[in-house]
Amino acid sequence: MVEKLIHFALHNKLIVMVLALGLFAWGVYSVRTNPIDAIPDLSENQVIVFTEWMGRSPQLIEDQITYPLVSNLQGIPNIKNVRGTSMFGMSFVYVIFEDNVDIYWARTRVLERLNYAQRLLPQGITPTLGPDGTGVGHIFWYHLEAPGMDLGEQRALQDWYVKFALQTVKGVSEVASFGGFGKQYQINIDPYKLNYFNVPLMDVLNSIRKNNNDVGGRKFEMSDMAYIVRGLGYIKNVKDIEDIPVDNYGSVPVRVRDIATVQMGGDLRLGIFDKDGEGEVVGGIVVMRYGENADAVIKRVKTKMQEVEKGLPPNVKFKVSYDRSELIEASISSITNTLIEEMITVSVVVMLFLFHWRSAISIIIQIPITIATGFILLNAFNVSSNIMSLTGIALAIGVIVDNGIVMAENAYRNLAIRQREKEMEYLKNQSTNEPV
């Protein structure tokens, strides 16, 4: 088989050259389309199931949520392991799949099983899937520079404007907010007043819940006009909560303000985000979707941030906290320069070693074609261009030319032997006066 390939290549040089140029062009295209990252993604193929049950102890979370989920998710095919973690008010279940499993197929199967496991959880508890990212998906961090704006307003701006805008960027799986205070209405109930008016606590909770709602009516016609009747009941400010009736004391309605104080405050925090010891800031973490090009996604996020910044309040600007593109560009630039230097050095050594330019060119031309073919394989196996993969290509340059040198030397040796045999046969014929 090898002899036939060599024979075909020697007698069809034009076809071989066209194939080589086509392979090189395909490789150049693969270089331009191959995902770029600083480090390889060695994280496991996993789906995260997150469940929140605020105010409950870790032991209760473990018994009522984590254990039922772990025990029911183990029946999914192609699973390597299922791990569960319980903490105050939250449960995390990590479903680890085989490496060859498609991540979106895995997420679909987990959702199917969660529909069954839902009935085993406490009422009102709904588990959700984590973002379709990886362990190295945190590619970009930013924070808001907003002098004169309190942390609650900054967090509201981040949650209800910036976050939704950045999540529309192609390749972004999630934008996780951090820092500041999540705004909430806080109702501080006085137990002595509850006892005085003889109002159960659950009646207060149910009254507030029912009054924070819009209700629909029906349509009626009057004077050739159609009118839609609806009741507007969503809470808009603190006074709306204070005016909600919860019970009657005699013939007088008892309102929320009679038994409690209502204020606007911040949600309970488990930590803060501090910048260089100068104070707290509010910002977000951009999580890249599985299999995306990190460098391209970061560029698209920066472009979108320039558009979003135009709609921010005066004196509010974006500041970059972490940008992986700097590391990516530095790493790729360093490895690229190393590749070029190695190619030049190897080419010079081959020229000096063989001291025959035609043979040297036939060996040196293999280097760019082989490297381009390597990027075709990187795309085929979904491997990004990173420090590890490019370093492997750089180390393989010596192996690339070794084969060519060995083949060239072997060809010259066989040609020399054949030439000596012809010369010996010629001399023998001359000595016996036989015609050549």
Summarize the structure.
The chain is of the alpha+beta class and 436 residues long.
Considering the chains and any ligands shown, give keywords for the structure.
436 residues; 15 helices; 4-stranded antiparallel β-sheet; elongated; 3 domains; Alpha-Beta Plaits; Multidrug efflux transporter AcrB transmembrane fold; Multidrug efflux transporter AcrB TolC docking domain, DN and DC subdomains
Strand order in space, largest sheet: 2-3-1-4
Q: Describe the global form.
A: elongated
Can you give the helix content as a percent range? 40-55%
CATH domain class of the largest domain: Mainly Alpha
Counted up, domains total 3
What's the CATH superfamily of the largest domain, by name?
A: Multidrug efflux transporter AcrB transmembrane domain
What is the count of helical runs? 15
> What composes the largest sheet?
4 strands, antiparallel
Oligomer: single chain
Sequence of secondary-structure elements = HHEHEEHEEHEEHHEEHEEHEEHEHHHHH
CATH architecture of the largest domain: Up-down Bundle
Weakly predicted, low-confidence segments: none
